[in-house]
């Protein structure tokens, strides 16, 4: 799979796209993503429908997926067509 940075959105914001897989899912609505370069990152599953997207993430653990990440929100799409919306987990530095 591949990774690239693309210009997207109305305001020309930078988006990052590539491949990743869900490695772990917590019932609290967070998931651990592993990117193709081996790095991992905890992400907050869509706060608008956490139960549904958490179930989707659990169903697709360790399956390859394509991601598109922006500062406002991100998507993870699996080969089955299932899509999860997620965000970075805010840190104290961002507040």
Structural notes for this entry:
The chain has 95 residues and is mainly β. 11% of the residues lie in helices and 49% in strands. The protein has 1 helix and 7 strands, in the order E-E-E-E-H-E-E-E. The protein has one helix at 50-59, and strands at residues 4-8, 13-26, 30-35, 40-45, 64-69, 74-77, 83-88. The protein has a 6-stranded antiparallel beta barrel with strand order 2-3-4-7-6-5. The longest helix has 10 residues, at 50-59. It is globular. Residues 1-10 have low confidence and may be disordered.
Keywords:
six-stranded antiparallel beta barrel; mainly beta; disordered N terminus; 7 strands; 95 residues
**Strand line-up across the major sheet:** 2-3-4-7-6-5
Strand content: over 45%
Radius of gyration: 13 Å
If helices are DSSP runs of H or I spanning 4 or more residues, what is the number of helices?
1
User: Percent helix among the residues?
Assistant: 10-25%
Spell out the helices and strands N to C. Answer: EEEEHEEE
Choose one word for the global shape: globular
Structural class: mainly beta
Largest sheet: 6 strands, antiparallel, barrel
Number of strands: 7
Unreliable residue runs: 1-10
Instruction: State the end-to-end distance.
Output: 34 Å
The pLDDT mean sits at: 86
